[in-house]
Amino acid sequence: MSAPSPEQLALWWRALDEHEQRQGRCPICGTCTRCWAWAGAFADLIAHDAYHLGPARTVVPPG
What we know:
mainly alpha
């Protein structure tokens, strides 16, 4: 497995932040449990052993 680029790490961290539950719901998906976007980003960070590193410092433009 190749190491993810800094931009990919930033995208995963941004997905975790954007899809973090607020008042019991995902603010983007509206689900009352963890949404698939959050779960996928979290799984990618864990699989690449990058979760413990914290958010990337690379800024990725929205979109």
